[in-house]
Amino acid sequence: MSHTAHIRSRRKPRRSATTSLAVRAGVAGGVISMAAAGASTSASAGETTQILQLPILTTELAAQVAQSAEATQQAAANYQLQAERDAAAAKAAKQATADLAVAKKKAETKKKAETARKAAADQAASRSAERTALAASTAPSAPTSSSTVTSSAAAVIAFARAQIGDAYVLGAAGPNSWDCSSLLQAAFKQAGISLPRVSQDQSTVGTPVSLNNLQPGDILYWGSAGSGAYHVALYVGDGKFVGAENPSTGIVEKPLSWSPPTGAVRVL
Of 12, 53, 58, 222, which residue is most buried, by most CB within 10 angstroms? Predict the structure, then answer.
């Protein structure tokens, strides 16, 4: 056989481009189909898993809801407590304001009362001073007796006359009301003499004197000397006395004939 004789080739003939594209398309289609099938299978598996886990998620959700409800209830309780505290604080503040207003009003009232009391005391002191000065200026220059009025007796008489017009109150001791013995006690204090407080004791101090030999400044008494004495007054001369007589007359100056005394004592 000639070496140039035709020998059939053992290689497979080349595929055309169209054939190659078709094959490739087929392979790609198969792969896509498999992927789709896998996705479908995965989706089915996922749905199964979701269905199986649903009860678990529902229980957890219920626990969360319960926890949220408890938190809400606690928050509501806290809000309520805070509201009650705020209301109590507002009420306390309102009460404090009211109490402060009442306290201020009481303080103002007390201050006004104290001012009025001081004004009344000043007025009484001024009136007493005026009466003292008036009594001193109008005092007789000499008593009816031959004795002259000593400076001590003049001071005692001036004080007693300055109280003329004041009230008689049993147990009172000035400055605007007296009883018979407190008036004499205060009058003799002007001369530096301390008398006992009651009529019975005042009727026995000093030296007993006759009613016919009285001097200004002598103490007159009614009843018997000592425990029997029930009233005292001051002899001021000219046959007159000054005394705290009774609630209807108060402190007056009267003649001895108006109510004749029982006896007298002298301490000046």
Answer: 222
